[in-house]
Write a structure and sequence with these properties.
The structure is a single chain. This protein has 744 residues and is of the alpha+beta class. It has an 11-stranded mixed beta sheet with strand order 3-2-1-4-7-17-16-15-11-9-10, sandwiched between helices. A 4-stranded antiparallel beta sheet has the order 19-50-49-48, with no helix packed on it.
Length: 744
């Protein structure tokens, strides 16, 4: 189901009052005051009563006994009356109608910034007019939102969905029947497993090392944890209980759990089926679920109360079935809530799961399900002629003539379309890696060299896409390779710079540089220049790996250096563009232009570079004087390309710009549909660039007209390389693409 968003922030004010801010909605925005219906002391009592009512269930359960709907319903109605009242209620009602007109639902995105209200079970919001809970309506789901940037794009996925399961029962805590827990999940997923939609793998051990080792054997799309959890008052955050070597409890904080899960790109969801897994202490924004989202997990579902075995089975089956079919996290959770409520109408356990996610659609996967062959049906021609065939030869001849005319019309139409359609690239091959590719390909020695989020550096045959070699580093590789004299130089976020044999991938040397190396090296006169998060710019002997000199900057150097005329030009996150003597490392000049991720390009005595202040800068190479600056609508992390008197660059505002290299005047702008972090490449009068719109574009360098676009499977943040009419580029789907480029 498609959703429109109703973004509601709850902000501390004075006393029992809170500010409500409708940050965005289909009906508009507003800012008002909410008088919360309970004092802090009353709230604590109400929360205890609601939890007790929720847990009063018949049958096998993880804690206590049998429901009281009136307590829960009254609590939910009080919350609804306080939060969705007055102007907010008006906007919400109008937004519901506007969403319905577009055949969409309205997602209530709650951003709770008042610490004392984080623990409130907002999933019980009850609309007395409709006599139902919002969270049980497909058109009115509730999500806990963290307003954080860089939410992960949907992961292109061919089934099965890979679920990694872990159950832990420390010997010094209440005994959990691990085998029983496994059987419950396996039972709920049995038909999904048989159909090939889902694959469930259990971790054999119960310690953090077992989890770490299992994660390295992925990729895993979902982590499903069953066990004990709680809140550590001293640490101020949630914990889960894993096992030490002696079987006793090892309380692993949400921060530590996040470290174990960091940088596993394919992981899109964590499910915590643990006591208090969704819970924050009063006054602390630090539950396990919230911290995992804050550290980068796109979505976390956690249980805010205990849940019965029967409800757990209903939840897991409905939720994972919806996720495996390609539904978003919120739509999948809504289906699970409905299944739980119908399976046991006396229960309110449907409100126990809580969804936390970053701002965005919540679409976790793009499921690539092969379509079944379409059912055979009569063609239009057969439908027209089939009834005539009993009436004699004359009608059969008429039918044949009609068929011939229709075929001729179809052929002419196809030819007109084909001759008039723009040229498009041919997909020659793809090469898959386990993680996104931000590294830009380098082509030399008939091989393509690039790095991946998996930490690997690859050498792939340029003609066929066959892997020649792989070298594994200890961190993400976003650096792009420099290849000189059959040696590949490349950095890694493990903090080292590597020299690898270009033909075999064997290590020649490595040099630790004291910080993440996201900068791409440049080689000149036997010396390699590269930036580091130390923060510093390094000159390194290309033969031995020895550091020749080190220049200290005031911030991380992610920018890749350009070396021209004995001078190294590079930007830094400290806001400066630097010119450094290539031989001595002495500073020639610096100019303040704002935080720099972009890498400089040098032509005709001028340095061109983008800035996060939203401008493209032109700086005189000798003096550091700013010649001009060109404004865009957002950050410029893309690195400029200079050709035929123009500078081409992308911006986070979603445009690619062509700017006159001398005057700084705009020649044209091209709308790429979403932010452009990819850096343009210019070849044969055509600008090639990737975009977060999941397209690779070919743009006429003179007119700014689109030549063609190629739809990739995900965001294209890598920068294209064009060699002998073949374009190579990486995507966030983990694929390296080789496209045959149409002639200009």
């Amino acid at each position: 189901m498609r959703y429109l968003d109703f973004d509601l922030r709850v902000i501390p004010d004075t006393g029992d009052d809170f500010r409500l801010e409708v940050a965005s909605s289909p009906a508009g925005r507003c800012d008002t005051v909410m008088r919360f219906p309970f004092s802090v002391a009353e709230l604590r009592q109400r929360l205890d009563a609601v939890e007790l009512a929720t847990l009063r269930l018949t049958g096998t359960r993880r804690r206590i006994a049998s429901p009281d709907e009136e307590v829960v319903q009254g609590f939910g109605a009080a919350l609804f009356g306080a939060m969705l009242a007055g102007e907010v209620k008006g906007l919400y009602d109008v937004s519901r109608r506007l969403a319905a007109q577009e055949d969409a639902g309205l997602r209530l995105n709650l951003q709770i910034e008042a610490p004392e209200l984080v623990e409130v079970p907002w999933e019980f919001l009850y609309d007395g007019r409709e006599r139902d809970y919002l969270a049980l309506g497909r058109g009115s789901p509730i999500v806990r939102i963290r307003d954080l940037p860089q939410h992960a794009p949907p992961l292109p996925l061919r089934p099965p969905l890979q679920i990694l399961g872990m159950a832990a029962s420390p010997s010094d805590l209440a005994k959990l029947d691990v085998q029983h827990e496994r059987e419950l999940l396996e039972l709920s997923l049995a038909d999904l497993t048989r159909s090939g939609s889902v694959s469930l793998t259990w971790i054999d051990g119960q310690g953090w090392r077992d989890l770490q080792e299992a994660m390295s054997q992925g990729p895993w799309h979902i982590l499903h944890f069953v066990g004990h959890g709680g809140f550590n008052e001293e640490m101020g955050e949630g914990v889960i209980a894993l096992c030490k070597d002696d079987g006793r409890a090892h309380l692993v904080s949400a921060t530590s759990l996040g470290r174990l899960l960091d940088d596993h790109y394919a992981l899109r969801l964590v499910l915590l089926n643990a006591c208090e897994g969704a819970r924050s202490a009063m006054g602390a924004l630090s539950s396990s679920a919230e911290l995992l989202v804050q550290r980068g997990v796109p979505a976390v579902v956690a249980m805010q109360y205990q849940i019965t075995d029967a409800a757990a089975v209903q939840f897991s089956h409905a939720f994972y079935a919806a996720v495996a079919s390609g539904q978003s996290a919120v739509a999948s959770l809504t289906e699970a809530r409905i299944a739980m409520s119908v399976a046991n109408e006396r229960s309110v356990e449907w409100a126990v799961p809580v969804l936390h996610q970053r701002a965005g659609s919540g679409q976790l996967f793009e499921i690539d399900i092969e379509q079944q062959p379409p059912k055979q049906s009569k063609s239009p021609l057969k439908a027209l002629t089939g009834g005539w065939q009993r009436t004699g030869s004359r009608t059969r001849r008429i039918a044949a003539i009609v068929a011939g005319v229709l075929s001729l019309v179809a052929l002419v139409g196809f030819l007109v379309w084909r001759l008039g359609s723009p040229p498009s690239p041919d997909l020659l091959w793809t090469f898959r890696t386990p993680g996104f590719i931000a590294s830009s390909p380098t082509v030399a020695n008939e091989l393509v060299y690039f790095g991946s989020q998996s930490g690997a550096v690859y050498g792939v045959e340029a003609e066929t896409g066959t892997q020649r070699w792989l070298f594994q580093t200890g961190g993400i590789v976003t650096s792009s390779a420099a290849v000189v004299d059959r040696v590949v130089y490349i950095g890694s976020q493990d903090g080292s710079l590597y020299a690898l044999d270009a033909m075999t991938g064997d290590e020649r040397w490595r040099r630790p540089l004291g910080g993440l190396v996201r900068s791409s090296p440049a080689v000149a006169d036997g010396v390699m220049y590269v930036g580091s998060d130390k923060p510093a710019l390094f000159a390194v002997d290309a033969q031995t790996g020895a550091v020749v000199w080190e220049f200290t900057a005031g911030g991380s150097v992610m920018s890749s250096p350009a070396v021209v005329g004995g001078v190294v030009f590079v930007g830094s996150q400290d806001g400066y563009l630097y010119a450094v003597d290539a031989k001595t490392g002495a500073e020639r000049w610096r100019v303040q232009i704002g935080e720099v991720f972009s890498s400089p390009a040098v032509a005709d005595g001028l340095v061109y570079v983008g800035s996060n202040d939203g401008h493209l800068y032109c700086v005189e190479a000798v003096s550091g004087t700013i010649r001009w600056r060109f404004p865009t609508g957002d950050k410029v992390g893309s690195s400029p390309a200079v050709a035929d008197g123009a500078v081409f660059v992308g911006s986070h505002d979603g445009y690619v710009y062509a700017v006159d290299a001398q005057s700084g005047g705009e020649r044209w702008r091209f709308r790429a549909g979403d932010l452009v972090f990819s850096s343009p490449t210019v070849a044969d009068g055509v600008v090639y660039v990737g975009s977060h719109s999941r397209n690779v574009y070919a743009i006429d360098a003179t007119s700014g007209e689109e030549r063609w676009r190629y739809p990739a499977g995900a965001i294209v943040g890598s920068s294209p390389t064009v060699v002998e009419h073949v374009l190579y580029v990486g995507g966030d789907d983990g694929l390296l693409y080789a496209l045959g480029v149409p002639p200009p």
